[in-house]
Amino acid sequence: MRKNKTGSTIKEGMAGRIFDVCNVLFLFLLMILILIPLLHVVSASFSSPSAYVRHEGILLKPIKFCLDAYKAVARNKNILTGYTNTIFIVVVGTSLNLIMTLIAAYVLSRKNVLWSNAIMMMLVFSMYFSGGMIPFYLVVKGVGLNNSIWSLIIPGLVNTYNLIITRTAFAGVPESMEESAKLDGANHWTILWKIMFPLVKPTVAVICLYYAVSHWNSWFNAMLFIRDRSDYPLQLILREILIQNDTTSMTAGGAGDEYLISETIQYATIVVATLPILAVYPFIQKYFVKGVMIGAIKG
Amino acid sequence: MKKGNAAQLAAGTYTAVKVPFKQRVVKDFQRNWTLYLMILPILIYYAIFKFGPLFGVSIAFMDYKPARGFLGSKFVGLKHFKNFFTDFYFLRLLKNTIRISVFDLLTFPAPIMLALLINELKHKTYSRVVQTVTYMPHFISTVVICGMIRKLTGSSGGITMILSNLFGIRQEAMLNNVNNFLPIYIISEIWQSIGWNSIIYLSALAGIDQELYDAARVDGAGRLKQVLYITIPCLMPTITILLILKMGKIFNVGYEKIMLLYNPMIYEKADVINTFVYRKGLLDAQYSYSAAVGLFNCAVSYTLVTATNKISKRVNGNGLW
Fold first, then answer.
1. Domain boundaries in chain A?
2. Which of A7, A139, A200, B164 has the fewest C-beta atoms lying within 10 Å of its C-beta?
3. pLDDT of residue A3
4. What does R_g of chain A's alpha carbons equal in angstroms?
5. Which option is the CATH number for A76-246: 3.60.15.10, 3.10.310.10, 1.10.3720.10, 1.10.460.10?
6. Whole-prediction pTM value?
7. B63 sits in which H/E element
């Protein structure tokens, strides 16, 4: 009996060890599958256009290292204005998002406010029911935001989901903090920014990242509302270059190599547009992870 | 506890005295008017940009003409809905929407598996590396992802080359072939989101009481049995809630991504309701017709979430509300 038992644990130990090894190898393979396309993009962007066009398959390192594509991208004014516009939208938009979300969350987390529950229910209602693309378009157009960079900031001023997260954080602050500040004669505005805000900073960091990333990624609303090319955010410029295959703004003036270089230019554009995010991402990753967990607790 | 009692007592005296509603409103306003002033801009924002479109949906029942305005347009009842149901493309759109979302739904277990595998890793640094790498694609914007897909599956793209060497497929842009759209959409979706979607399961796994595992080990349960009888049951509430949320998105399949990937050659398999709404409404300016199509879409999504929620509540007691 006893012998049998030890025998089975040894067997299981063996099986477990085999599983561990396979697990490590499998996850390694998965990482490779995720990294290879990225590696290919970076390699292609640094390759000589003529050598790149002649090669076959996936690149793991640049062939005939060459910076022509990046020179062409640097010459392109559109990418620069796109970057400027996007940075404006991300900075101004996220700041307004945060101010508005914090104010709303503060007010709605106060106790003894007669209408706060009714208001909250209305806001949550709007989260589940929306009019859809066309009515939204007509409303934004109707208030005169069409063809203005503000059409990418004002219509998304408050995200109800982020509001709920922030409200929960405010509700978790002990009431005594507010009471003592009130005794010192502080008004709500001061209490919000001087006392409550520092206490919920971790949550603010999380929703700040959520807002910033959604501004950075958004292109659809810009396509709907922006007509002036000088107001295009980066993603819309990228769409022209990568999806509509329009690289004329960068290849113009070249000789017969235009077709050749347009390939590597597209890769260089991807790198230029993605590198800033991927470079800071490992440092802010933990905030994102925290954000997902806060969301999970709410859900 | 004491505080709660006091509050209850206060509330009790309130109802006993029976302060009229009007007086309560006035008193509340006198005390909290600064708070109401603070939230006023936000309420105006919600009224315009969240409730405005909700009322704007009524154009689905009118022949809305921008020149005549909202009030001047003629009421036509269900005309646009009837037109949509008898539209030449109606069945195609419905089939495509459902096909793409059902396959998307089938990828649902992938992040769960990944979380379970990461959870079994003994080497903590390696586990962190796996997480960092698999989360990475989530931070690349949709436009760039679709640009990459188009390049790699283009007529001379890396993936096209490999597949043509292995299976002898023709060297042409893969996205011009009707049958390739679905696999490309789904595989790229997994590539981009498997890591990120596993986070929520990993955090749920971290929350499982370790004593459960200790007890199971004492009872002689091996690692497989621990996973089957402890880990997975503990994950069930999270899985159910995410599944319900996903059901709500079925009819809103990632249309932004589809719009960046498709072309008229593959509309037959790639065109979904929302992309159709965009083309009809905003490119052809048929506002009322496409608003009706959009409303149909919203109604179906809402029904799906409610139905799934009910079913899951009955089956395992977990629900969103």
1. 2-54, 76-246
2. A7
3. 38
4. 26
5. 1.10.3720.10
6. 0.85
7. strand B62-63
**What is the distance between the alpha carbons of residues B312 and B321, in angstroms, rounded to a whole number?**
11
Residue A51, classified by CB atoms within 10 Å of its CB into exposed (0-12), middle (13-18) or buried (19+), is middle
CA A13, CA B264: separation in Å to the nearest integer? Answer: 57
B14-26 pLDDT per residue, tens: 455 667 888 889 9
**Strand segments (E) across chain B:** 62-63, 74-75
The interface predicted TM-score of the complex, written ipTM, equals 0.85
Contact list, B122 vs chain A (CB under 8 Å): 20
The alpha carbon of residue B90 is apart from the nearest alpha carbon of chain A, in Å, by: 19
The pairing of strands B74-75 and B62-63 is antiparallel
Which of A126, A266, A281 is closest, CB to CB, to B151?
A266
Token reading at B299 = 């109604």
The per-residue pLDDT for range A69-99, each reduced to its tens digit, is 898 888 888 899 999 999 999 999 999 999 9
To the nearest whole Å, the CA of B193 is away from the closest chain A CA by 11
Asked if the C-beta of A10 comes within 8 angstroms of chain B's C-beta atoms, the answer is: no
Q: Which of B130, B145, B143 is nearest to A285 (CA)?
A: B130
Query: How many beta-carbon pairs under 8 angstroms link A with B?
Result: 245
Helix (H) or strand (E) run with residue A8 in it: helix A2-45
Cα of A1 to nearest chain B Cα, Å = 14
pLDDT tens for residues A240-295? 988 887 777 666 555 455 566 788 888 999 999 888 888 888 787 777 777 776 66
A260 within 8 A of A49, measured Cβ to Cβ:
yes
Helix H or strand E encompassing B215: helix B210-218
CA-based nearest residue to B147, from A89, A278, A126, A271: A271
